[in-house]
Amino acid sequence: MLKGASPLVFERSVEGRIAYSLPELDVPGQDLTNILEDKYIRKEKAELPEISELDLMRHYTELSNKNHGIDSGFYPLGSCTMKYNPKINEKVARMAGFASSHPLQNESSIQGSLEVVYDLQEHLKEITGMDEISLQSAAGAQGEWTALLMIKAFHDANGDSNRTKVIVPDSAHGTNPASATVAGFETVTVKSNDKGRVDIEHLKSVAGEDTAAIMLTNPNTLGLFEEDIITIRDIIHGVGGKLYYDGANLNAIMSKVRPGDMGFDAVHLNLHKTFTGPHGGGGPGSGPIGVNAELAEFLPKPLIIKKDDETYGFEYNMPKSIGRVKPYYGNFGIYLRAYTYIRSMGPDGLKHVSENAVLNANYMMRRLQGTFELPYDEHCKHEFVISGSKQKALGVRTLDIAKRLLDFNYHPPTIYFPLNVSECMMIEPTETESKETLDGFIDTMIQIAEEAENDPDIVLEAPHTTVIGRLDETLAARKPVLRYEADES
Ligand SMILES: *Cc1c(COP(=O)(O)O)cnc(C)c1O
Hints:
Aspartate Aminotransferase, domain 2; 3 domains; seven-stranded mixed β-sheet; 12 strands; binds pyridoxal-5'-phosphate; glycine dehydrogenase (decarboxylating) activity; PyrdxlP-dep_Trfase_major; GcvPB
């Protein structure tokens, strides 16, 4: 076994031990052969681990401690950051009336749940400045794809089927070109200028009668606000295209500026980022989309509507809808968390969140800029990008710096993204971290930069404290070893 590794629960097994005793059977026993076909009935006892309650609890606690999460340390991953996960969210999501409801229940018996969903939609309309919201899609990328299908349906309905291209900046999140491709469009890249913004002249040259839409995030993934957004809107609307807003990370602008007011026609949000849903490992997410009135009739169905003063229900009568994109009604548990968060913060609270997110990011950027190269020396929004190019000249790459951070119990920042900055590190501190935490991380980054100069091997050989050092990350992702092979000897 590797040093520091935990034994598997099977390896802890000792015959006869149990962690939980079932109550005595108080109904007549059943003969399985009357209920199940023979082929489904086990011939030998299953080899399950036998372990005491306390040992079992320690086993899982030990495993969970090997994971990095925001409950165990700072997590400044840019863009896809796990933001705040307030504990009250979990309490609300577990309330029996919500947790034990079922999507097949009759409308009249889930009025409370429908009211929460409807209210959440209303809040998201106000936050984004859009006319209609559908909560159905289960992830940011799915929201992108859904809205692009709607944009396609809109152009088709206008007899405008030659709009085959979606414009995406070179700094865009990878899901943008991927969603456009899956939705059947061809992507066209628009370059960034030397200020990290969309190059307007280049945009004019790629926009045309074949443009279906542009996908933008503002602030962009460099953390910079597209100041020319009104010009961009006019160029795209001028050629008959639509503006799509990637709102996965809205924590720089809430209660400050709204995608709808910037001229966007469609937007997705990640409730599992900005609106405090936990995420990771492909767990349940929620990527609602908001659209303006022109696109609303193409929304996925059913919509959740208010039927009269007191009754909520589903609207299926939507002849132009693109259809369903998710079984049932999306991930309700994440709606509850987002709703709890929005209600507990209120509009002023959300504004304060954005101000703190921006303040924290600028503070870190300014303290790090002497040590690391800062490619765009301007105020940032909720995140910023620095480059490890000075350290690379010493033979220490950004990947090595990221690995070395693990030794100090930090989740590394996003690295080598966006693609237009070499050796880049994209850092998002989020709004909820204290100055002491930010300083601790910055001091560690400065220490690692000093090591790169004076003792590079310690960085090149990092991590030193984890059970496994450097993995072949591609192999680990493509061919994960997830099954326990019992030792037969
Ligand atoms: C996270 C993220 C997405 C994709 O969201 P998923 O829920 O992971 O599909 C899209 N765009 C940006 C900018 C993001 O940060």
